[in-house]
Amino acid sequence: MSVDTVITVGVVATIAVLAVAFGLGILRILRSETNAERAVVGDLVYFASIGMLAAAGLVFHSAVVQDVALLAAFLGILATVALSRILTRGER
């Protein structure tokens, strides 16, 4: 096996694990009772999708996809902080 084949298999396995996490997260969002729980699982789903995007960028050797994934991750962190402030009504 060549190095490229091993890397591709590893990336595909990573995408599969993240897809399972994504699917279970969606199910958990549908069954959750509190807004805080939905927010936490929503972050899991969001960052799992970013991970799948970044892994796909590795498979297709695309620097643009990697840049988009980094930008989306940065915006996701900002959204997480903003949502936590909303849920706690601005308390620290």
UniProtKB/TrEMBL annotation:
GO molecular function ontology, one term from the record: monoatomic ion transmembrane transporter activity
Protein's UniProt keywords contain Protein biosynthesis: no
Sorted UniProt keywords: Cell membrane, Membrane, Transmembrane, Transmembrane helix
Membrane topology listed for this record: Multi-pass membrane protein
Subcellular localization, as worded in the UniProt entry: Cell membrane
GO cellular component, one term: plasma membrane
Protein name, UniProt field: Na(+) H(+) antiporter subunit F
Presence of the UniProt keyword Cytoplasm in the record: no
TM segment ranges: 6-27, 39-62, 68-87
